[in-house]
Each structure stands twice: as C-alpha cells, then as structure tokens.
Amino acid sequence: MEVYEKHEGSALCIALSGELGHHEAVTAMRRIGESIDEDVPRTVILDLSGVGFMDSSGIAVVLRAFQACQASGGQFCVRGAQKQARRVLDAAGLNRIISFI
To answer: Residue 72 belongs to a domain with what CATH number?
Structure first.
C-alpha cells in the first residue's frame, strides 16, 4: 500500500495504491490522519483509483478520513473507487453519508 498526497487547487488529494487489507489499513489511517492534521484542508479527496482490492478494513480507513476531515470543518469525497472497492463501501452504506465522484 502506497499513500501519495498532492494539492489540487485548494483541495488535498490523498491517493492510495495497492491492496487495502487489515495490515495496510493501519498504515493508511496513520498517514491520512497526519496529512489532514498537518494541512488542515478545506476539502479532502480520497482517491481510490489505484486500489485493486479492499476488504472491510477499507471501510474503517474511509470513515476515519471522513471523520478527521469533518472534525477540521472540511468537506470530504471519495474519487475513483474501482468496482470491488465500491461494492464494499456501498454494502456498508457509506454512499449515504459520503460523496463518491
């Protein structure tokens, strides 16, 4: 699992690449939290286009990023979730509280 960050205008884009299982989720949550805490962005885009596999641990990663963004008063969305990852996130009902683009 690799975690990249870049700015897209005033938004912070955090891109994940690889598989997102239990072991990778711990690292991803830590890195995402650090990025949001350091930058305090108004908008966070979590880019999952590079994630080929996600299990239920990915739900925790997305929720933790969403909560960290909300705590700082920012907006949050998920971009590019591939079919398998999107099924996991939709099954958890995240599509009811998080914007997917």
So the answer is: 3.30.750.24
